[in-house]
Amino acid sequence: MLKLSLSETSEAFRASLREWLSKNPPPPTPSETSLEEFERVGRAWQRQLAAGRWIGTHWPSEFGGRGLSLVEEAIVQEELVRVSAPQVLGLFGLTMVGPVLISHGSKSQQERFLPKILSGDEIWCQGFSEPGAGSDLAAVRARAVAVDGGFRLSGQKIWTSFAHIADWCFVLCRTSESAKKHEGLSYLLVDMKSGGITTRPLRQASGDREFNEVFFDEVFVPAAHLVGREGEGWKIAISTLMFERVVLTFSRQLQSEVALNALLREFGGTVSGADAVELAHNVTAACATRALAYSHLLSYAKGKAPGPEGSMDKLLWSESFQRLCKLAMSLRGAASALGEEHGEAAHDVHRYLYSRGRTIAAGTSEIQRSIIAERVLGLPRLRQEKA
Q1: Coil, strand or helix: which one is 65?
Q2: Taking Cα atoms as reference points, which of 368, 275, 367 lies closest to residue 316?
Q3: 215 forms bridges with which residues in the sheet?
Q4: 221 touches 151 (CB < 8 A)
Q5: What is the greatest pairwise CA distance in the chain?
Q6: Does the active-site annotation cover 122?
Q7: What's the Cα-to-Cα distance from 62 to each of 58, 175, 224, 239, 303, rounded to whole Å?
Q8: Count helices and strands in the chain by DSSP H and E runs
Q9: What does the mean pLDDT of the chain come to?
């Protein structure tokens, strides 16, 4: 795969991380796939990384980071994949809430939440999607009514990853019915231990059960937990998604490359015909995805804020990941389809089923294409003719 030619400073950073990892090896990725084991290992590994200051390295130093760029953050992700480190537990906090609070939060919010996001002592979930508002995020109906000292939040969220173990949830909700739908939204930080919250698990086709639907029934949220001003929720939500599509998508692309490299080792010199063409296509797509991500990371390192171009990373990765998972099922044949214990084939069915949702989660492929067309390429917005 591609490797970026970096400055001496960045390569010295990589060497320092490699030395630390050699002395502080990660725990093995758990063979048991229970959420309880995932939580235990992921939380402990995040604390270990945080102790070495290898978490949130691109955060400003006054907020617990190292004040480095997203290039260095990408180096961290590359090196963690190289040593087969397990996933840290607090990804939503690290990749979305933390950067949003640094950009939009009050000083008291930054002091209260950022240290525990880095350490993994507090885990976050994302309260955006609703049954009638997934890709059309501005259509959310969860309602927060201003009361003395704060808000009363009522409504439902769905597809909320890790809500059942999360300590906090960042919630996009409606605080005004009179404004245009993009303008009547606010961004609240909600304590998941508050009275009036009900969490129900949702089992996925893959067998995973980290998704949940969450119900808020007159939940009190202090005014101090409003991020920005009332009515600024849409702007802050978009900022959240821009940050998500930088580090989180890059990390997922690296994991995809691990699966692709396993296929190359097993089948690279043996397949022919259509399978060989498809394998070559997957290699090409992986290189293109990595090159695109590198180009964006370098522009961010020069001071550009993450923007709509992140939709290109998300679209290219999710589409190519689905194609890769389908190829793995095809190459390994019956053993893979039956989910038999046969090397990598044991993971094929799970990966394939998981991949089906990646072109939906964090905005469908159709939404990503619209963002790219309108906000990156500057094409006119298509409007439906009234009948």
Answers
A1: coil
A2: 368
A3: 156, 198
A4: yes
A5: 70
A6: no
A7: 11, 32, 21, 21, 18
A8: 12, 8
A9: 87
Secondary structure in 3-state letters for 19-46: HHHHHCCCCCCCCCCCHHHHHHHHHHHH
Q: Of the given ranges (94-103, 106-115, 171-180, 198-207), which has the lowest mean pLDDT?
A: 198-207
CA atoms within 13 A on the CB side of 214: 35
How far is the C-alpha of 75 from the C-alpha of 13, rounded, in Å?
8
- Report yes or no: 286 and 364 within 8 Å, Cβ to Cβ: no
Angle, in degrees to the nearest 10, between helices 70-82 and 249-267: 40
Helices (H), the chain: 8-23, 35-51, 70-82, 91-92, 98-104, 107-119, 233-243, 249-267, 273-301, 310-337, 345-356, 365-371
Structure tokens given for 182 = 């993009």
**DSSP reduced 3-state for 387:** coil
Instruction: Show the tokens assigned to 8.
Output: 């001496």
Tokens of 103: 């950009």
Q: Which of 244, 266, 319, 374 is catalytic?
A: 244
> Could you tell me the sign of the dihedral formed by the alpha carbons of 28, 34, 36, 39, in that order?
positive
**Sign of the torsion angle spanned by Cα atoms 248, 250, 254, 256:** positive
At 378, the amino acid letter reads G
Contact 335, 348 (CB under 8 A): no
Name residues whose C-beta falls within 8 Å of residue 222's C-beta, 6 or more positions apart in sequence: 149, 150
Predicted local confidence at residue 387, as pLDDT:
45
pTM: 0.85
Tokens read off for 363: 């905005």
Q: Which two tokens stand for residue 65?
A: 């980071």
What backbone torsions phi and psi does residue 239 show, to the nearest 5 degrees? -60, -40
Q: What is the pLDDT of residues 36-54, one digit of tens each?
A: 888 889 999 999 999 999 9
Cα of first residue to Cα of last residue in the chain, in angstroms, is: 51
Q: Give the length of the chain.
A: 387
Decide if 157 contacts 144 (C-beta within 8 A): no
Tell me which residue of 293, 339, 285, 340 sits closest to 312, measured CA to CA.
Answer: 293
Closest CA to 282 of 256, 311, 255: 256
